[in-house]
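Lecture notes, unit on protein representations.

Consider one protein chain, 92 amino acids long.
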Amino acid sequence: MDIKAMLTTFALIFLAELGDKTQLATLSFAAGAKSRLSIFIGAAAALILTSLLAVALGSVVGQWVPENYVKKAAAILFILLGAWMLLTPSGT
Protein backbone atom coordinates (compact mmCIF):
# COMPACT_ATOMS: atom_id res chain seq x y z
CA MET A 1 0.00 0.00 0.00
CA ASP A 2 1.25 3.47 -0.91
CA ILE A 3 0.71 5.46 2.31
CA LYS A 4 1.78 8.76 0.71
CA ALA A 5 -0.79 8.38 -2.09
CA MET A 6 -3.46 7.40 0.42
CA LEU A 7 -2.81 10.37 2.71
CA THR A 8 -2.58 12.80 -0.20
CA THR A 9 -5.85 11.53 -1.63
CA PHE A 10 -7.51 11.71 1.78
CA ALA A 11 -6.37 15.29 2.39
CA LEU A 12 -7.36 16.56 -1.06
CA ILE A 13 -10.77 14.85 -1.10
CA PHE A 14 -11.49 15.89 2.49
CA LEU A 15 -10.74 19.54 1.74
CA ALA A 16 -12.63 19.45 -1.56
CA GLU A 17 -15.73 17.96 0.07
CA LEU A 18 -15.96 20.52 2.88
CA GLY A 19 -19.01 22.66 2.24
CA ASP A 20 -19.91 21.11 -1.10
CA LYS A 21 -23.43 20.26 -2.25
CA THR A 22 -23.18 16.68 -1.00
CA GLN A 23 -22.25 17.77 2.49
CA LEU A 24 -24.99 20.40 2.55
CA ALA A 25 -27.56 17.84 1.37
CA THR A 26 -26.43 15.42 4.08
CA LEU A 27 -26.66 18.21 6.65
CA SER A 28 -30.24 18.98 5.63
CA PHE A 29 -31.24 15.31 5.77
CA ALA A 30 -29.70 14.96 9.22
CA ALA A 31 -31.46 18.09 10.47
CA GLY A 32 -34.87 16.53 9.86
CA ALA A 33 -34.12 12.86 10.49
CA LYS A 34 -34.95 10.80 13.53
CA SER A 35 -32.06 8.43 12.89
CA ARG A 36 -28.87 10.34 12.21
CA LEU A 37 -27.01 7.03 12.06
CA SER A 38 -29.15 6.06 9.05
CA ILE A 39 -28.23 9.33 7.33
CA PHE A 40 -24.54 8.79 8.09
CA ILE A 41 -24.59 5.21 6.78
CA GLY A 42 -26.50 6.22 3.64
CA ALA A 43 -24.18 9.15 2.90
CA ALA A 44 -21.04 7.14 3.64
CA ALA A 45 -22.21 4.26 1.43
CA ALA A 46 -22.97 6.66 -1.43
CA LEU A 47 -19.55 8.30 -1.15
CA ILE A 48 -17.83 4.91 -1.02
CA LEU A 49 -19.70 3.73 -4.11
CA THR A 50 -18.94 6.89 -6.10
CA SER A 51 -15.28 6.60 -5.09
CA LEU A 52 -15.24 2.95 -6.16
CA LEU A 53 -16.70 3.89 -9.53
CA ALA A 54 -14.15 6.70 -9.94
CA VAL A 55 -11.23 4.36 -9.15
CA ALA A 56 -12.57 1.66 -11.48
CA LEU A 57 -13.16 4.13 -14.31
CA GLY A 58 -9.81 5.80 -13.68
CA SER A 59 -7.96 2.51 -13.90
CA VAL A 60 -9.68 1.65 -17.20
CA VAL A 61 -9.12 5.12 -18.65
CA GLY A 62 -5.52 5.01 -17.43
CA GLN A 63 -4.87 1.93 -19.57
CA TRP A 64 -5.99 3.69 -22.75
CA VAL A 65 -5.29 7.40 -22.22
CA PRO A 66 -1.97 8.89 -21.13
CA GLU A 67 -2.00 10.39 -17.61
CA ASN A 68 -1.17 13.91 -18.80
CA TYR A 69 -4.26 13.92 -21.06
CA VAL A 70 -6.45 12.78 -18.17
CA LYS A 71 -5.06 15.55 -15.96
CA LYS A 72 -5.56 18.17 -18.67
CA ALA A 73 -9.12 16.99 -19.33
CA ALA A 74 -9.90 17.12 -15.60
CA ALA A 75 -8.45 20.63 -15.35
CA ILE A 76 -10.51 21.81 -18.33
CA LEU A 77 -13.64 20.23 -16.85
CA PHE A 78 -13.05 21.99 -13.52
CA ILE A 79 -12.56 25.32 -15.31
CA LEU A 80 -15.74 24.84 -17.36
CA LEU A 81 -17.76 23.84 -14.29
CA GLY A 82 -16.37 26.81 -12.35
CA ALA A 83 -17.23 29.20 -15.17
CA TRP A 84 -20.71 27.70 -15.45
CA MET A 85 -21.26 28.16 -11.70
CA LEU A 86 -20.05 31.77 -11.87
CA LEU A 87 -22.17 32.65 -14.89
CA THR A 88 -25.37 30.81 -13.94
CA PRO A 89 -27.80 32.85 -11.84
CA SER A 90 -28.35 31.54 -8.29
CA GLY A 91 -31.35 29.29 -7.84
CA THR A 92 -31.14 27.94 -11.37
